[in-house]
Batch of 4 targets.
Target 1
Amino acid sequence: MNVLIASGEAVPYCKTGGLADVAGVLFRELNAMGMDARLVLPLYGGIEREFDLAATGVELEIFMNGRLYSGSVYMHDKAVFIRCDELYAREGLYGDKAGDFPDNALRFAFFCRAVLESCKAIGFRPDIIHLNDWQTALIPLYLRMEYGGDDFFRNTLTLLTIHNLGYQGVFPREVLPALGVGEDVFTPEGIEFYGKVNFLKAGILYADILSTVSRKYAEEITTPEYGFGLDGILGKRRDVLFGILNGIDYREWSPDVDTLIESRYSAGDLKGKALCKERLMDECNIRLKKGAPLLSFIGRLSVQKGVELIVDGMDRLIGYGCGLILLGTGTREAEENLMSISLEGRENLHIRLDFDEVFAHSVYAGSDMVLMPSRYEPCGLVQMIALRYGTVPVARNTGGLSDTIEDYNALTDTGTGFLFDDYNLAVFLESVKRALTLYPFSRRWQKLMKRGMEKDFSWRRFASEYAELYKKALSGELGRA
Ligand code: ADP
């Protein structure tokens, strides 16, 4: 099977978030399973300095925005890079400190066209084009409009994976010429969205199949509460909308092999975890009574992650006798807000406004619980990592958190964490209190930790689930858009 993965980012080449891990790992795993998978990315500034790319000699000339844009195609192993220096040779992927790049509509419209042209030029005929997020979502539209009668793509199916519906690629109507499309597609049934152009909407309408990164999120995005205005059209395509959980790499994230933590440990021998906690408390200048729990938050300081509940509940949590560590980065405003709290000198609170992967390992290993009061969470990796480290999640019952955490039941002594439904401070604190009530009963708590540590959220599983979905689509079971 020939699979082309088109993405705005993928490890090891370029990364701003979890999408890069998913795309990069999927590419590697599909090839390991014997498929012929290619990855296609824009050639951003910096990639060439790190990787030895080979020119293919393929030149692309694409007419957009009233002129010709020239590109060329490079390869690194089976990864394909679209070079167009005036569009991509910058340090940021989608923007810089000043914000999003103003020509992003043109940059990714060009990318979408170049992906299709380069397939033809290098003679790679994909059975499946696997698209990821808005940056690649115009491809099904172009396939339908311009390649409709093209024999080359006659048997090609498209799958669009939505990693976060909060990012849709919405631009003013004036970008239509940059997309190389006319007013005829700018209708409510097409890519028009409240007077603007919406890239993701094109993908949702015209991709053959759709997926998102958990089953629960696949249901949620068809409702007004989580649909960001696209719930109506997602609901209409519900029969081809699937949920496949992301996974983590246990070679990097597992306390029995982790070289970045104070002491290794496993579900069979938890002694090392206590040493990790001591070391972490020392490092963060946290002094707790014996047997008091250490809580942490790791993630983007965004509205999505529910940071405001942590900030509003902080004094209460510390008042319950807990230590609290916050590791995150965000907008200048979010960081300044936390910075000022940090300077107020509370005891047993440690705030680190940095993206620090090494420290993150210590926090996962040394904490007793992680807090994830997210407003919405398409998949979430933090809770999967935490579970592996025996760090019990206290999380909102939404999206991937619902799919990966089983709420603790005191009667049956089952579950792997603590879930709460309503997004408000009182309900959040109630669920923390439920956890604190169990915590002193160390035998039950250890069983809870161990159940979480034994769960399997590895990336191997998700790669085979995508492979199954491709097969199902190609067998004709799912129909075409
Ligand atoms: P997102 O919505 O940001 O993709 P996820 O939970 O899916 O959230 O993934 C976040 C990943 O980034 C996790 O691996 C987490 O450990 C890591 N991470 C987030 N913030 C930080 C930080 N400040 N320092 C180190 N790692 C972080």
Target 2
Amino acid sequence: MEKLAIIDCGGQYTKVIDRKIREAGVYTDILPMGVSAEKLQGYDAMILSGGPASVWESGAPTYDPAIFDMGIPTLGICYGMQMIVDHFGGTVAPEVKTEYGQIEIDVDPTCPLFAGLSKREKVLMSHGDAVSVIPEGFRTVASTGGVCAGVWNEKLRIAGVQFHPEVDPTVHGVEILHNFVRGICGLKETYALEDRIETSIRAIREKVGDGKVVVLVSGGVDSAVTAALLVRALKPEQVYGIHIDHGMMRKNESDLICENLAKLGLTQMQRINAEDAFFHTPLVIDGEQYAPLSETCEPEKKRAIIGHMFFVVTEEAAKKLDLDFETAFLGQGTLRPDLIESGNPDVSGYAKKIKTHHNDVGIIRALRDKGHVIETNWDWHKDEVRQVARMLGLDEEIASRQPFPGPGLGVRILCTDDGKTADAEKSGLLADFMAGQDVPFAAALAPIQSVGVQGDHRSYRSLVILSGAGLTPDFDTLYKTAKTIPNELNFVNRVAYLLNRREVGGTLHSVRSRICREEADLLREADAIVTSEIMRPMADGKCHIAQCFAVLLPVGVGDKFSIAVRAVVTNDFMTAQSAVPGVDFPEDALANIVRRIEAAGLPVDMILYDVTGKPPATVEWE
Ligand code: XMP
């Protein structure tokens, strides 16, 4: 069988490349960046993934230079292209061009990689470095604003692209990858995707035998699929379902989940109310003392506490069932992106941590090392889990349900102390930048940060608030401005637009906030309004939104909190676009949200709409 090697340079989307090539009928292996040319013998082609490093850094990860002498067709993606350029004598440098998000580039359709495409293509970029000098023997076959975005060496059959053809925002990405594997490499369709359900059932039976599994069910499609596969693979008395309400669920969420879970065939199921334990328990995690969640502001600490508490509460519940995890297994719906974003070394030795997902904290990793965690979705992205859910016959309501992160509202209540204002120097830089833009918006730097993913790195940067036309901005110009600001100002990764008035109207300052019942209740009310308005069907009878929620922001002109509305369109959740009113959700939704939040008398200052994609932001704010 013909096979293609994917060299993992630590990119966020390495596994997506792998899937796209397998879907094209070509067998793949993901190999670490340091793989020797000798080990690559027998492969017919290779793809070098993206990655967080810079080729010009002294500490850049090393590779075997002989891999480029093997004479096999090669495609470098993002960092992979920069590796090629650097290896063959060109130059890659910082501050040539920084781009995060979907942009239009010029491509040369006479290059076989772009055969059949038009001269302008929409692609996904996420890079801080760029090519400034292309190597001899290569020609530029794609560019953005005069900067090289693609190289091709006909003789060596080596191509490189600065953008990411593997993800959905690159509109003709599938065609580009097909052009590579078929047109350039001449690989035929010789590989059929394995039967995921059969493989998974076999693996569960092998691992569990006559043992017992305690499966954590959050209500989302991921854990529902894990539970359904366990029920299929094992006897009913071997599987125990546990749902933990940690006090940070959405309005009525836990009731709905428990109703849905009954449909999965789990005969032993319990719901645990653990708000008090989650909010108020001080912990020692990996030898470090942690204050309780209700006294913690730092997002990664909040994530670590919540993830750890999930296990503590589960272990206690297991004890009552006469089980312990020395003998029993823990079942989780962990997805590939959870592990990639958590920087799990078993998934990639080179990827950087973006955020700690609750299902990949230290205590879980230790249990995994002992072989006592069952994760049926370990290799899959969200869209694959949804496919499996449908194949398993799960209710469409579960299969297409919008995700809700394990830490719940805990990562949607941003926490900080009182009275901070935005950095004066950075506010000045923002003002200077806006003065050069011919746009009908004012911009204010907010004194809060949120998490983003930029060039395969985690970022924790400032929020910019745009204002000007209340509920009727020109969304085209708004999205263009929102894209330009993080590309040009390296201290910004998120932009939101002010809906409920035309100007910020004063100095923004932070408002003290901590995880507590009152804050969670306020967010639950706002979130219920936001989701009911945005998650409505469009003209085709379908809801186009992949995920939608409200975020509680500890910032305002007065002493009240503000609310941000987040709504995104995506399939795999590794990238996402901010949903466009009138296109992705009903045009009147934002006005209705403002009206209903005001009518409900919720004590909020600003109501914002998050207009940032992933990258540069993430879907969640923390
Ligand atoms: P981000 O914010 O990384 O989110 O763009 C991508 C998707 O993952 C969800 N998410 C989580 N899911 N545990 C989960 O089970 C977590 O810790 C977690 N953090 C983010 C997020 O809601 C989105 O669907």
Target 3
Amino acid sequence: MLIDFHTHSTASDGELPPAALLERARERGIRCFAITDHDTVGGYLAVRDSAAAQAMTLVSGVEFSCRWSGVTVHIVGLGMDVDHTAMRAGLSRLAQARQERAAKIAQRLEKLGFAGALAGAEAEAGDSQLGRPHFAAWMVAEGHAEGFNDAFDRYLGQGKTGDVKAFWPELAEVVQWIVAAGGTAVIAHPLKYKLTRTKLQRLVLDFKRAGGTALELVNGRQNPDQTATLRRLALECDLAVSAGSDFHRDSAFGPDLGVEFRAPEGLDCLGQHFLAEANT
Ligand code: MN
Ligand code: MN
Ligand code: MN
């Protein structure tokens, strides 16, 4: 069964507008699908009533950034009521955090002599979530940097002037928003945080304590060893499993939309869960 519970549209840092993304999913024959933009449900809202959405099981989605033990962790939320008060409050808090961060990045760039950074980045962002890529695009357009990578290497990347840490909420908070709104919280790409085995288990325990119930068994292209590691973790910790491409744009090395997914023996697959729910 082809499913995809982790994708990005232009509502965050993806290349395809939500409608085009959904159309691609339909063409590829994906049965169960979610648009999980960073810290916004805008992608989902844009298509939830479309004809293409009726042709499959479209589940609401979001990918929250949060803090846990000094690490930035991503939590995917699936199947929430996006109009729930807890969810709305959480989303607006994150939008504010991003805005404050952007203002700080702009302030720092202005100190370096790059005037008009905030307005420039906002114009680049349009309807999507304002972030460092938009500052980079503005710097390139203004001739302050030779290219996107140059802008990051010199001004925006890790340890540079524009590397402002956002004030993300705590892991427990975002998990609680998702759960309160009737959704399922999923630890996104658990191996990307490069945690030791012990620390990863601690993350899972804290996540479960907050109400989290699933992890991503497959995220984009990953090797079989990683999948095996995650399968063991899910079994040991009694978590359901999700899968997604983490598709952002077409690229020769990146994954295409859709993951051929069958949950390994003994594991609960979110795809089956949402399909069953849609059929009742
Ligand atoms: Mn992204
Ligand atoms: Mn992520
Ligand atoms: Mn993602």
Target 4
Amino acid sequence: MISTMTDCIFCRIVRGEIPSQTVYQNEWVTAFHDIAPKAPVHILIVSNKHLSGPLGVEETDAPIIGEIALAANRIARQLGFAANGFRLVANEGHDGSQSVAHLHFHLLAGRRLGWPPG
Ligand code: 5GP
Ligand code: ZN
């Protein structure tokens, strides 16, 4: 399902109305480079369907989460950082410091990432 929210920035990227450096797209998800990278590799994997975030996922949306994991797997192998590892993380709401209310996972790689996050 392709998103229909007109004023959502990630919906507009999914529809190709706003340019992005897309690295992967299928029926369920779209992945593109983050505009303000926090690591040498910083890719956003977003649902093609508009969902507000992890809290907006309903039972019928569960396959989308699997597709996000598969996309991360494929991108990591394709871009050559699977062996070194990566982080796949989604922020939700105020305490999660979510800034865009459209479901997305950050795929971060290319350096040893600190834990726990700040
Ligand atoms: P959040 O803070 O919601 O977890 O993550 C939102 C991410 O979207 C941020 O890392 C931010 O840099 C990225 N972002 C915001 N607007 C755009 C945009 O127009 N294009 C791209 N490629 N990334 C964006
Ligand atoms: Zn959206």
